[in-house]
Amino acid sequence: MITLATLMAMGFGSMVSVELVRDSYHVLSHTLPPLSRLHAWHHRVFRPDYTPTSDTIYRQAHWYHDVPEATVMVTFSLLLWWTMFSFTIPGYWGAGLGCFYASFYLVSAVARASGVEGADQLTDLTHLPGPFTRAPAPWLVNQSYHWRHHFDNQNAYYCGVISVLDRLMGTALSLKGKKVAVTGASGSLGRSLLSALQTQGAKVIALTSSPEEIEINGSPIKTIVWQVGQESELALELEKIDILILNHGINVHGARTEEAISRSYEVNAFSSWRLLELFLATVKTNEQIAKKEVWVNTSEAEVNPAFSPLYELSKRTLGDLVTLRRLDAPCVIRKLILGPFKSNLNPIGIMSAEWVGKQIVNLAQRDVRNIVVTVNPLTMLSFPVKEFFVSSYFKLFSKSSSSTHSL
User: Fold this and answer.
1) Using CA atoms, how far apart are residues 338 and 356, in angstroms rounded to an integer?
2) Which strand ranges, in their side-by-side order, compose the sheet holding 203-208?
3) Residue 163 near residue 139, CB atoms below 8 Å
4) What are the backbone dihedrals phi and psi of residue 296, each rounded to the nearest 5 degrees, phi first?
5) How far apart are CA 6 and CA 92, in angstroms?
6) How many CB atoms lie within 10 A of CB 221?
7) What is the number of other CB atoms lying within 10 angstroms of the CB of residue 395?
8) What distance in Å separates the CA atoms of residue 405 and residue 263, rounded to the nearest whole number?
9) Which pLDDT score, from 0 to 100, does residue 264 have?
10) Distance (Å, rounded) from C-alpha 298 to C-alpha 319?
11) What is the per-residue pLDDT for 401?
């Protein structure tokens, strides 16, 4: 006897498979010339504020791309259902949900192409004009996520409803042409991040307390010298930056003096928090909501001992502040939860900074919001649990800002 759970699983699986077919068709529309010529109409439709350039082009774009795409989705869903039916695979009726799901997109595409009044407002939700109310969502494609496909990089952000394919392909975040600034740039991880980012086409900027100009891959890069406590002096520079990576920190090891306590919290927690707030204040327009991000190195010390009490305490403070701020942040905030890597702060680290930097960039391109890079499997299990409960606690016992929107 087929259970309800089996039918639901089949139904959900069929809808996800239909979405993967849609997104694969979209990828092919950017690579195969016959499909590219048709899909080009879709990219002629919208201005950066999502208002159509003309009603005629809007309709033609749907006939040339959306209707054929939805037809492929329907065809696949019917073939999937028929195959399961023919082989009497348990729960095949549940797969029929994929047929209805795909049919909805075909009917709505025909309605938009035919100029049915109100069809665009009801069915074309990722192209609605107006101010964005959310930053790019982590799993479901919303206005700001899809905006990046049109106006950031057309060779990325291919997904239409769920971002699974983009995550698998590493196209859920394009770094090409992005202005990315890294604090702690003279350290081992800072240099590794700058190199990995530059390899992916980013325009990198080093923020460092060292007076020497930083070179990456044998060439000097833009270097801005600043000191902890002088964060406000970077405000104008932060206006021009797309991605800010907060990576600076200190480790006083076993010290517990008043000066060590003050210095640890000032550098590891409060300096990063001030820069975070300065950067978030620059996120005002639709483009900035869609493109700007902050990555914060909070460390594995959020959940595990680092055998340096003040390092742990100050990093946990930063981690909790970021978790709290995420609830109302106007742009994407990623956490970097890193295990021990070799650096001046930790000369006995297990991982290489170069490898860690590459993994961070690789996971960010797959839109991982909590980037865990460690050799400790306990961290991979404990951090998501900790983050879930701390975030839930903050949601329950703190008030949201009326001027920002949660991610």
Assistant:
1) 8
2) 222-225, 203-208, 179-183, 243-246, 293-297, 332-338, 370-373
3) yes
4) -120, 120
5) 9
6) 18
7) 13
8) 33
9) 97
10) 5
11) 66
**CA 307 vs CA 197, 205, 216, 250, 347: distances in Å:** 31, 32, 32, 14, 14
Fill in the amino acid letter for 179.
K
- Report whether pLDDT(404) > 60: no
Q: Is the pTM of this model over 0.85?
A: yes
Reduced to 3 states, what is the DSSP secondary structure of residue 288? helix
Distance in angstroms (rounded) separating the CA atoms of residues 224 and 215: 13
* Residue position matching structure tokens 């492929």: 72
For the chain, give the mean pLDDT: 94
Residue 280 CA to residue 293 CA, distance in Å, equals 9
| pLDDT value, residue 93 | 81
| Sequence letter at residue 328 | D
Average pLDDT in the 149-171 region?
97
Are 289 and 283 in contact, with CB atoms under 8 Å apart?
A: yes
Q: Is 158 a catalytic residue?
A: no
Structure tokens at 78: 């019917």
Looking at this protein, which amino acid is placed at residue 308?
Answer: S
Q: Using an 8 Å Cβ cutoff, are 344 and 310 in contact?
A: no
Angle separating helix axes 271-280 and 309-326, nearest 10 degrees: 20
Q: How many CA atoms lie within 13 A of 9 on its CB side?
A: 7
Catalytic residue among 92, 105, 311, 393: 311
Q: CA 178, 184, 185, 190 torsion: positive or negative?
A: negative
Residue whose structure tokens are 């930790």 = 346
Residue with the bigger pLDDT between 17 and 344: it is: 17
pLDDT in tens, 315-329: 999 999 999 999 999
Query: Which residues are registered as beta bridge partners of 225?
Result: 208
Three-state secondary structure along 34-66?
HHHHHHHHHHHHECCCCCECCHHHHHHHHHHHH
